[in-house]
Write a structure and sequence with these properties.
Blueprint (H helix, E strand, L loop, with lengths): L6 E7 L6 H9 L7 E7 L6 H11 L6 E5 L6 H9 L6 E4 L5 E2 L4 H11 L3 E12 L7 E2 L8 E2 L1 H4 L14 E3 H4 L13 H9 L3 E14 L13 H17 L5 H16 L12 H11 L6 H9 L2 H13 L8
Parallel strand pairs: 1-2, 1-4, 2-3, 6-10
Antiparallel strand pairs: 4-9, 5-10, 6-7, 6-9, 8-10
Length: 328
């Protein structure tokens, strides 16, 4: 165990047997002028992830840096994340999930060097390559079209969801982030709350160096999210309501419209579509959040408020009174 580490690297893993060795070794092989620790939280993987990690711990000369636990029972993604985040002792924390990896042995050093010289910055991130593991698709870069290199909390909050900081690229000043709130346990997103919570207390710096790989595969947690599933959508409503409070309602207008988007998507979810009158509470909330400039109002009425037989009745009446031309 490392005493007084400069950086705590937080890695959560679940069923990453195929990836965890490359991921963990990419962190252990970092070249730094300071000490760092690696907190590895295995959420009771059902494959051989634990065996791979144990082998590294037995044989790697820098294994003393690793603080490893294997949950029993399985906690779930964000509870496991909170458990690992609560163990952080470093001045800074970096994140790398068990199926991602770093490709620059100077990554930690470069980010620490910047943050040490710039105390008004809370976060430092860098460009990241996206590789596909189980799909035939070309790699690309997360920040191919980024337009500036300094951001603030204002840039991270919009009427739409904003994301341009790959998890494996993040380094965060621990004092800026503070304590992980209890509501984080039930959030489906980990990185969005972490970034916003830290950005309340400092600026965000972008480094153009490509220093990590975000590996997309169909088994990853992000692929279990669905914008057509009510559980995911209600969770996003919950998360942004909490973040609205965490930011002192400073961005209330923007976040209300962001939340409203998820209410509108709920109407098209697998569980709620074509329910019409039973969806009135969701429709009312959407209108309340966006009033007086309600987006998609005509579509809302046509597709979600009036069943097809009602719309058909209106059409027949209008046709009978000659308000619409008869079909030839």
């Amino acid at each position: 165990m490392v005493a007084n580490p400069m950086v705590s690297v937080v890695m959560i893993t679940y069923n990453h047997e195929l990836f965890i060795e490359e991921s963990l070794l990419s962190i252990l092989n970092q070249e730094t002028s300071f000490e760092y620790e690696i907190i590895v939280g295995n959420d009771r993987s059902t494959d051989k992830t634990d065996d791979v990690i144990q082998n590294i711990l037995k044989n790697h000369p820098k294994a003393y840096r690793v603080r490893y636990y294997n949950n029993n029972p399985n906690l779930g993604v964000t509870p496991n994340s909170k458990k690992a985040l609560d163990m952080v002792e470093g001045k800074y924390m970096a994140l790398c999930e068990g199926d991602d990896f770093w490709i620059d042995e100077q990554k930690l050093q470069k980010q620490v060097d910047f943050l040490e010289l710039n105390e008004d910055f809370a976060i430092c991130f860098h460009n990241t390559r996206v590789d596909f593991f189980d799909q035939k698709a070309p790699s690309y870069y997360v920040n191919e079209n980024i337009e500036k290199d300094v951001f603030t909390l204002d840039d991270m909050i919009g009427e739409d969801e904003i994301w341009f900081t790959a998890t494996a690229s993040l380094m965060i000043r621990s004092s800026a982030y503070g304590k992980t709130p209890d509501w984080f346990l039930t959030s489906k997103s980990g990185d969005i709350p972490i970034i916003i919570l830290a950005a309340r207390n400092g600026k965000i710096k972008y480094l153009p160096d490509v220093m990590a790989v975000y590996r997309k595969n169909l088994a990853s947690f992000s692929h279990t999210d669905s914008h057509e599933d009510k559980s995911f959508l209600w969770n996003r409503v919950f998360m942004y309501e909490k973040l609205n409070a965490e930011t002192g309602f400073k961005y209330n207008k923007r976040l209300k419209r962001n939340i409203a988007r998820y209410y509108y998507m709920l109407l098209n979810s697998v569980q709620y579509r074509n329910r019409y009158f039973r969806n009135f509470p969701i429709i009312f909330k959407y209108i309340l959040l966006t009033f007086p400039n309600v987006p998609n109002l005509k579509l809302l009425i046509r597709d979600h408020m009036l069943p097809p037989f009602v719309m058909g009745g209106f059409r027949s009446i209008k046709k009978a009174f000659g308000l619409i031309p008869s079909e030839s």
